[in-house]
C-alpha cells in the first residue's frame, strides 16, 4: 500500500484520486454500459476534469470521491465517496460510487458505501447521509438498502425519475432531535454542515 488510506475495510481501502488514475478511472467512467444510468460515457478529458473536481473537494469539504483499491493486489476498481449535491433544490451529502465492470457483483460497492456511511457519521458528524439513483437502477437501489438507507422521496431530474434514499446519524439525531427515519420524506429543512459547491 503506497498511500495511507482515507478509509479502510477488510478488503478495500479508499485513497485520494490523482491524475495518474485517469486511465484506470476511464475504465468505468468512459464505459457506455457502466454509465448507462449516469447520462453516458465520459471523454478522457472529462475523466481528468472529474478527478480535478474531486481534488478540489478534498480541500474545500474534506471529502469527495476517492479511488477504490483492492487490498489483496492493489487493483483499481473505481471510485466511491461523499459529495455535496443539490437534490430537488436542497443541499445534501451523498454517497456515490462507480465500479469497473470486472469488479461488479462482488460486494465491493456495498462494502465501500458502508465504510463511507460510517466515516460520514463517526468522523465528519454528518447528521443525515443520502444516496440517489434512477428508479430503474436496481443494483444501486439494493446497495442503498443494504447499508441501512430507506426511500425518502422521488423526484425528476434530466427527464428521469430518481429515488432518494437516506439514513440518520443516530448520535446526531439525539443531539438535534431530528425526525425518525420512517417520518423523513424530504431533505428540506435539513441544514448542511458544509457550504454548497
UniProtKB/TrEMBL annotation:
Cross-referenced Pfam families: Acetyltransf_3
N-acetyltransferase domain residues: 11-149
SUPFAM superfamilies in the cross-refs: Acyl-CoA N-acyltransferases (Nat)
The protein's name in its UniProt record: GNAT family N-acetyltransferase
GO terms, molecular function: acyltransferase activity, transferring groups other than amino-acyl groups
Source taxon at top rank: Bacteria
